[in-house]
Design brief:
Blueprint (H helix, E strand, L loop, with lengths): L8 E5 L2 H11 L3 E8 L4 E8 L3 E7 L18 E5 L2 H10 L8 E2 L6 E6 L5 E6 L1
Parallel strand pairs: 1-4, 5-8
Antiparallel strand pairs: 2-3, 3-4, 6-7, 7-8
InterPro entries: Fosfomycin_Res_Enzymes, Glyas_Bleomycin-R_OHBP_Dase, Glyas_Fos-R_dOase_dom, VOC_core, YwkD-like_dom
Keywords: Metal-binding
Protein name: VOC family protein
Length: 128
């Protein structure tokens, strides 16, 4: 088997409309399609980033909360490459997004910072 690329990333939100607004209005994803699945009381939306990446956003009634510390098994976070982490953090803060302080990756010397989606999912800005 040869894996060509990552096809999509899937997230579950507790409030579909709130998460949809965050990923489109705050982070700049474009909604490609969405469907309500009545049998599951669930929304599913496909969001596009720069014509290359697809984020699938799901909602389900009463999903279990994400584990916090200590860190749990599974996807740890999703990182976005940006040209300027400090400018990105300032823009996110202006939009009311909870952010951590800018720091330096001790392994690469690159600037980075974590921020959080409406459900507390950790996301990262990482400088190119």
């Amino acid at each position: 088997m040869r894996i060509n690329k990552v096809h999509h990333i899937a997230l579950i939100g507790t409030d579909y409309a709130r998460s949809k607004a965050f990923y489109t209005e705050v982070l700049g994803f474009t909604l490609r399609s969405e469907v309500y699945r009545a049998e599951r009381d669930s929304w599913m939306g496909d969001f596009d980033l720069n014509g290359e990446y697809v984020l699938e956003l799901f909602s389900f009634p009463n999903p279990p909360k994400r584990s916090t510390g200590p860190e749990s098994t599974g996807l740890r976070h999703l990182a976005f490459q940006v040209d300027d982490v400090a400018a990105g953090l300032a823009e996110l803060a202006e939009k009311g997004v909870r952010c951590e302080e800018l720091r330096i990756d001790p392994h690469t010397g690159k600037r980075m910072a974590f921020f959080f989606d409406p459900d507390g999912q950790p996301l990262e800005l990482y400088e190119a």
